[in-house]
Write a structure and sequence with these properties.
heterodimer; A: 146 residues; alpha+beta; Sufe protein. Chain: A; 6 helices; 3 strands; B: 425 residues; alpha/beta; Aspartate Aminotransferase, domain 1; Aspartate Aminotransferase, domain 2; 7-stranded mixed β-sheet; 4-stranded antiparallel β-sheet; 17 strands; globular
Chain lengths: 146, 425
């Protein structure tokens, strides 16, 4: 069934038990992103020390895809140098925009590979990228402020 | 009434809509419950468009050759039939790109009125003048008014909603005041299907000399509507929500108002006399149809109103009412489903929005889609309404003449399936 391909167990697990959820301090920058077609929103904070992502905290309202992908994001980037975090982000964006044609690298994306099925549904790609766009924006703001 | 009172023969009718027999998502029967967003077109409409393009296609209102004549006749003939359909006169209908353009046309023309000469004085918005809208508006009948208020210094006011999603008309006189210049409101909510009391609002507006602008996008396709009887000043609706093509909408304006209203989009076709120093403008409706207009779309919309007229708008309304009652009953019987808006079908068209506890509308829509059921998810271009009714977004099923009780059952079963899939049943 196609539905199971899209909603992998990993996604549903992250949705029901999100990692890193809640807004925390200290943080260097915050980004608010909204998906104007559905009203889904996320507020995401980053704390970067010596070019390493120390913490990502977030709150928001959204579908299972947007919430789970933000949860996966925290697993992937917290504790990583900003450059490596951005490489993971690029890999995730490439996967999501690949319309199901991109083979994900589990070493890079870990649980993120579960979103490969979502890439076949163009209407849901924005959901999967909502938290990542907030991360990108928040890091840029933190660097701008530094 | 003997023939029009008979129920619809939906099986026969569905045969006119080829798309309804296709399958989706690995062979699932298509259950199309998204006509509030866009309706499907019968072969009669598709054939009319094709026949026009194959026999009479030419630019209208220009050229003296035979095709130009025939194309112009087809275009203006469609205008006449659409005018008859909505209780308006021929010259009172302007073809637009869509309903949104219709609202913008009125709002921008009013914004232009201050510099347009004495006959446009009644449209001028001054700082402190009031524009009244409602919290249930589609963004199309809200944002243009916010913008013209910003440009002119007019003040935007609005009617609030009751907890069940109807207009709170408990104190009309505090909202519509002697300072009110425009009252813009929807005939039927695109989210909840709530049908507003046009007579109450028109009377209140007329008492203070304010203009009325009606969003008729969800009323004209689904029941009998007569603009003259409603006494409305302007109304806008779209073709693609009433079995017609996309790329065409209709703005209705009372004749004396259209004659005094300054233009919005300017250019060719809408002029009377052009000199280098300045221009004068054609009478309506041409004044508001600048540039080469859509043609096969107008012809297709003419065929759509012919089709709807033959079926009968009373019957369509009654059919959708029965589907709405069934959907409200079926959905309210599911634990964990919250209906948004009224829980009854009184003064309501065929739209049923809801949310499922523990299942985000996007996810619910995805499960329904996997079962072949097409619904709308999100805020349906009515963000303020969702905020009022404490919903971040919703799942919305909308019905039309070709939907069946079986499809309502499929929706209800699909909602249970979504609960099961997300483990909240």
């Amino acid at each position: 069934m196609q539905l199971q391909q899209m909603y992998q167990e990993i996604i549903l697990d992250h949705y029901k038990n999100p990692h890193g959820r809640g807004l925390r301090s200290p943080y260097d920058a915050e980004s608010f992103q909204v998906n104007p077609t559905c009203g889904d929103e996320v507020t995401l904070r980053v704390h970067v020390v010596d070019d390493v992502v120390q913490d990502v905290s977030y709150d928001g309202q959204g579908c299972s895809i947007s919430q789970a992908s933000t949860s996966v994001l925290t697993d992937l980037v917290v504790g990583k140098p900003v450059g490596e975090a951005f490489k993971k982000m690029d890999a995730f964006v490439e996967l999501m925009q690949g319309r199901g044609q991109v083979e994900p690298d589990e070493d890079v994306l870990e649980d993120g590979i579960a979103f490969a099925g979502v890439a076949k549904y163009p209407a849901r790609v924005k959901c999967a990228l909502l938290g990542w766009m907030a991360f990108k924006d928040a890091v840029a703001r933190s660097q701008g402020a530094a | 009434m003997t023939t029009t009172a008979a129920p619809l023969d939906v099986t026969a009718l569905r045969a006119d809509f080829p798309i309804l027999s296709r399958t989706v998502r690995d062979g699932k029967r298509l259950v199309y419950l998204d006509s509030g967003a866009t309706s499907q077109r019968p072969t009669q409409v598709l054939d009319a468009e094709k026949a026009f393009l194959q026999t009479a296609n030419a630019a209208v209102h220009r050229g003296a050759h035979q095709l130009a004549e025939e194309a112009t006749d087809a275009y203006e003939g469609a205008r006449q039939r659409i005018a008859d359909f909505v209780g308006a006169d021929f010259g009172e209908l302007v073809f637009t790109k869509n309903a949104t353009e219709g609202f913008n046309l009125v709002a921008y023309a009013m914004g232009n009125a201050a510099t347009a000469g004495p006959e446009a004085a009644r449209f001028v918005l001054n700082p402190g003048d009031e524009i009244v809208v409602t919290e249930m508006e589609h963004h199309a009948n809200l944002v243009p008014w916010q913008q013209v208020a910003q440009r002119t210094g007019a003040v935007l006011k609005w009617f609030k909603l009751t907890p069940d999603g109807r207009l709170d008309l408990s104190d009309v006189d505090s909202v519509i005041t002697p300072r009110t210049k425009v009252v813009a409101f929807t005939h039927q909510s695109n989210v909840t299907g709530v049908i507003n009391p046009v007579d109450v609002l028109v009377a209140a507006a007329q008492k203070v000399g304010a203009l009325t602008v009606l969003d008729a996008c969800q009323s004209v396709p689904h029941g009998p509507v007569n603009f003259h009887e409603l006494g409305i000043d302007f109304a806008s609706f779209s073709g693609h929500k009433m079995l017609g093509p996309s790329g065409i909408g209709v703005l209705y304006g009372r004749r004396e108002l259209l004659e005094a209203l300054p233009p919005f989009i300017t250019g060719g076709s809408m002029i009377e006399l052009v000199k280098m120093e300045g221009s004068t403008f054609a009478p309506p409706p041409q004044r508001f149809e600048a540039g080469s207009p859509m043609t096969s779309q107008a012809v297709g919309l003419g065929a759509a109103v012919d089709y709807l007229s033959v079926v009968g708008m009373e019957r369509i309304h009654a059919h959708e009412h029965a589907l709405t009652v069934a959907a409200l009953e079926g959905l309210s019987g599911i634990k964990g489903v919250r209906l948004i808006g009224p829980s009854d079908a009184v003064d309501r068209g065929g739209a049923v929005p809801f949310e499922i506890e523990g299942v985000h509308p996007h996810d619910a829509g995805q499960v329904l889609d996997s079962l072949g059921i097409a619904v709308r998810v999100g805020h349906h271009c009515a963000w303020p309404l969702h905020r009022c009714l404490n919903a971040q977004s919703s799942v919305r099923a909308t019905f039309y003449l070709y939907n069946t009780l079986d499809e309502v059952d499929a929706l209800v079963d699909g909602v249970r399936e979504a609960q099961k899939f997300f483990g909240v049943a």
